[in-house]
Amino acid sequence: MRARLTAGPLMADDLLIASGLYVSYGKPRPSVLARAPRLGVPVLHGVNLEVRKGETVGIVGESGSGKTTLGRTLIGLVRPTAGSIRFDGIDITTLDEPAMRPLRRRMQMIFQDPMSSLNPRHTIGRILTQPMRLHGLASDHASARGRARDILDRVGLAPSTMDCYSHELSGGQRQRVGIARAVVLRPDFVIADEIVSGLDVSTQAQVLRLLKELTSEMHLALAFISHDLSVIRSICDRVVVMQSGSIVEQGPCEQVFAAPRAAYTRMLLDAIPLPVLDPDWLMSGPAADQVVN
Amino acid sequence: MVEVSAARPEGSQATLGDTLRPPSIRTRLLGDRKVVAAGSFLLILIVAALAAPLIAPRDPLDQNLMLATLPPAGFAGAEPGYVLGTDDLGRDVLSRLIFGTRVSLTVAFIAAGLAALLGSWLGLVAGFLGEGIDSLISRLVDVWMAFPPVLLSILLVAVLGTGLHSVITAIVVIDWTRFCRVVRTETMAQARMDYVVAARALGFSRFAILLREILPNVMPVLIALITLEMGIAVVVEAILSFVGLSVSSDTPTWGGMIAAGRQSIHQAWWVLAAPLLALFATVVAFNQLGDGLARSLDPVLRR
Amino acid sequence: MSAARLSIDDLTAVSVRDGNRFMLRDVSLKIAIGEVHGIVGESGAGKSTIAKAILGIIPSQVKVTRGRIDFEGLDLLSLSSTALRAVLGRDIALIAQDPSTALNPARRIEAQLTDGLRLKRGLSSSEARMRAGTLLEDVQIRDPTQVLRSYPHQLSGGMRQRVLIAAAFALQPKLVIADEPTTALDVTVQKQILRLIRSLQERHGTSVLFVSHNLGVVAKICDRVSVLYMGKVMEQATTAELLTAPRHPYTKALLGATPRYDAPESGLQPIPPGLIAALRAEIAASDARPADRGSADG
Question: Which residues of A fall within a CB distance of 8 Å from C215?
Answer without folding.
Answer: 201, 275
